[in-house]
Amino acid sequence: MKTGIFICHCGHNIKHTIDVKKVSEYFKKFPSVTVSEDYPFVCSEPGQDMIRDSIEKQGLDRVIIASCTPSLHGEMFKDLLKKSGLNPFLLRRVSIREHCSWVGDDVEANTEKAKRLILAGLYSAAHYVPLEEKLVDVTKSALIIGGGVSGLSAAAFLSKMGMQVYLVEKEAELGGHVRTLKNIWPARKEGKSIVDEMVNELSGRKNVEIFTSTTISAFEGFFGNYQVTLNTPEGEKKLTAGGVIASIGFSPFDPGIKPELNYGKDERIITTLDFEKNGDAIKLPGKPRIAILHCVGSRDEQIGKPYCSRVCCINALRVAEAVKDKYKDSYVESFYMDVRAHPRGGEEYFEDTQEKGVLFTRANVAEISPTPAGIVIRGEDTLFSETFEREFDLVVLSIGMSPPIDNKLIASLLKITLDKDKFFLEAHIKLRPFDTAVKGIFIAGSCSGPKDVEESINHGRASAVKLFGFLNLGYAYVDPFISYVDPKRCSGCRMCEQACVAKAIKYDETKRVVHVEEAACMGCGLCNATCPSSAIGLKGYIDCMIDDEISAFLEAI
Amino acid sequence: MKGRKLKKGDIESALNEFLKGDQHLVLGFEKGENGVSPKIFKGSLDHYSLLNPVFGANAALYLRRLFSKGCQVMLMLRPCEIRAYVELQKLTQIEREDIIAVSIDCPGTISSKDKKGDVPTEADQLTDYFKSSDSMRWACSVCGERRGVVGDAGVRIDRNGNFWVIPYTEKGETLLARMEGESEEVPAEMLIGESKKADKFQVDMETFDKDFEKCTMCMNCRDMCPVCYCIDCVFHGDEYIPKGDALINKILRSGSTKMPQGKELFHLIRMYHVSQTCVGCGACEEACPQGIPLTKYFKGISERLQGMFAYMSGRSFDEAIPYLTFLEDELKDAED
Amino acid sequence: MGEAKKKDGVEIVGFACSFCTFKASEMAGSLRMKYPEGVKLVQVPCSSRVDPAFVIKAIFEGADGVFVAGCHPGDCHFIKGNYYTRRKIAALKEMFDAFSMKEKLRLFWVSAAEARRFVEKVTDMHNELKERKNEREKA
CATH top-level class for A141-250+403-476? Predict the structure, then answer.
């Protein structure tokens, strides 16, 4: 066996807490190791050239790359092996960054740990065999869940590219929350007109099917061929989708959760969303006194919403501006923690609003109490460290975004994960922000965390591009990590068949052994763990690989 | 519960009647010159014994991979043997279709290693014999089910020495159809009653090491276990118990090792493998040349692990083996 | 063997499912959270791939503890895999309990988002095993 071990410094990231030289030297003494090198950036072009060179010149038959976690650069290194004429499944990635150099400070301990992690890779890779990627047919169709702006923009892109699109909306109308917004900053456009424009773009297209007042009742299958059952007003409908974009938006924060705000108890305490819908109808005196509260339902640990909702500061500014424009002599005071005017032009907008005479007070508001004369706000001015009590004619709560109501339902249907704030979790916050951990399922818009209209539209479009890339070929390669049976060892006890969730195992009555239906196998390995004689094995994770990894962690070295 | 009261000879005549059928066999016990032993009868019974006071092996062992069609086999065996058969049937190692399994009340057995000529073969005498002697196998003394209440039918013995044949399944009814007389209500009290619940098994690794000190890893315990059914045992390979090159490589990597190595692995993994199917018959201990108290461990562990899922191996044909099914809302304590 | 290892030689082998716990461990690394270096992970596609024999092997090859970790019940990427894991590992824990070594095996659920929970779980296990080891060495 000729193994090449390549240890990445990752610049400073790995080298800082692992003695990479010591590790690469250590592996040189192994008879099965032909090359053991460390290199500043294995993923760089010269780094890749070095590996390719070693494979070609030294005839390596196993490659171990000890670097970042396997989910990063996975495809790139697989391609590198292919280009070098080696089966890509003879590659073993060992994570010595996320699982070693970054999680411990002690250089000596980390160096020992890195050795063992690489040793486990070396032992395990010794059992590797060349595998062929499985080619699966991909249905060129996309299911988009949620017809808000992000869903609409995804649908617009995909349908324009000729993809069959199924757009599912729970409500009777498309457009989500944006439809209800009046004057969207900075475009100064009605939400309804933005939505209508997007819907109009779709309406002429034959390859778009829109289902309103529709929910999803079942979701099964695999990447490329998801079987979806819809619950439409006309009854049940089944369809096949190659991939999915979940764009189910957000729920507005309900200020009723915070009783001290007395929301819902008095019609003079409203939210930014209420103002948006009925702002014009609100009767105010000639010189109205108006208070605006920032960060309601955001950056609040006590109610489990520690995140910034990103849109509410601008919303608060819009309310302030609208009031000031209508009532020149109004007294408008904004109570804030700090103003985060996120988008482009936001800071300037903030300054303009201040110039219009809106007062900004950094404060912790303790209580809002309605009295016949006016609404009394009590709190603490955190700049002057003094308490205050002021009376207003109207209080507007700038509410944040909460996760969508259906987050758990959709997550469990699609088998995707929620983050700590209960929004959908992306596969990688920087490198794969549109993907989920499930292949072929993407997320778009504010269901993956608070976003404004512009961001949501862009996010939807970006997810659509990613999904298009997945579906467009009409076929895809999937990892060949599926189960296989050694019929000579199989006792035909059918335990694996009984346990298999995917029902991919079939029993042969005449041979009295089982076999695996490859297309149906999900590759979980439950059968492998159930079989007492391990006659059924999961490729890539067979017993001897895992057993040897365990040994590598524990044997004396 | 209804059954049919019989005189002792009635069972023999019913079995002889059964054996007249084409390709009909009975697996039961024969009383020979040197005591009682299992036998497969063809044609007619000869020196038949309903009970066998000597335990050498669990007869279900002989049935593994029995798939023959068209051959009717009647099993006239002890409850532990019928229970092992039921488990093997769940594991598709025995085709149930052509088998009628009858469990017979068991007063207990002595070890084949202590085989003595003077052990009686009648139920009441045997019960008295075990009262005055401590020669009963430990496995039997703590047996969880000595009553003939498993399988397709059972032969129960009442306090007056009458025999009762009680059907539990449709197939059991067909056995009854071969017998004369009418069914009547079975007495509540029988000669052999329900077993006492065993104490929760508790041990530690020091005791294990001491108990298994003499183990030579001959693996007879596995070979004679009725529910250790694998064609190719996982311990044949080098993953858990390396041999030859693999062994030397391991020693070179890790350092000196006392031989035979891997005792804990072999016994604990096997213990886990049979944890839901072990019937506690003690065939492993019977097969052990070193006298290791295997039953204590295997029965103790399997009772605890089966208890978690309110499962009892071989009690019913319909209960799924617990590792092959689940409830969504269960085992809340399992999580740490 | 390094000095650090001599000081605190608690070895824990963890089986982590690719979709939840392993992802959480990646995130813990990205966030530079710290946990004891004795914790080493074996990546498996699903916690249901964990053959109890692996756990037994790890213990008798010298691991002080083993944990099996996967997605929360109901969240399994393979739909139902972790329900089987729960049955098997719960049974194995009962067996370890019978052998008076139940502290050596833990089962927990860590979703891909729960990096902090992952670190807390492994650190807690490590600390308890270390305490027991110290007590044994004293005695």
Answer: alpha beta
